[in-house]
Design brief:
Elements (H helix, E strand, L loop, with lengths): L21 H25 L3 H27 L2
């Protein structure tokens, strides 16, 4: 069976990280920080560590803001 001249042509449909729009990146990063913040909050509560609870709450809020910014940018057209 002959090998294709350019095997990369079969993978052009897959998005690479560099192909992602900035608004989408903001949404994804925001959701990541939101989830990470929730985890920190729960661990802080379970270990009775108020500073970790506060840190988690702050990170969760920042993640929500970043996610919302990405959504707004998407609506405005990047």
């Amino acid at each position: 069976m002959p090998r294709p001249n350019n095997p990369n042509k079969y993978f052009k449909t897959f998005k690479q990280e560099g192909d992602m729009k900035p608004s989408t990146k903001d949404e994804v990063k925001g959701k990541f920080h939101e989830v990470k913040g929730k985890i920190k909050e729960k661990v802080g509560k379970a270990t009775n560590n108020p500073s970790l609870v506060n840190e988690g709450s702050n990170e969760k809020t920042a993640g929500k803001v970043q996610k919302k910014i990405g959504q707004v940018e998407k609506v405005l057209g990047d």
